[in-house]
Amino acid sequence: MAAKLFTTGALVLGLAAVGAPAALAADPSLDLVGPLSEYKIYVAENTDQLVTDTEALVAAIKAGDLDRAKALFAPTRTSYEKIEPIAELFADLDGSIDARADDYEKGEKDETFTGFHRIEYGLWETGSTRGLEGYADRLLADVKDLNNRINALTFPPEVVVGGAAALMEEVAATKISGEEDRYSHTDLWDFDANFAGSKEIYDLLRPLIADKDFVARVDGNFADAGKVLEKYRMSGGGFVSYEKLTDADRRILAAKVNTLAEDLSTLRGKLGLA
Question: I want to staple 58 with a disulfide (CB 3.0 to 4.6 A). Which of 74, 110, 136, 264 is the partner?
Answer without folding.
Answer: 136
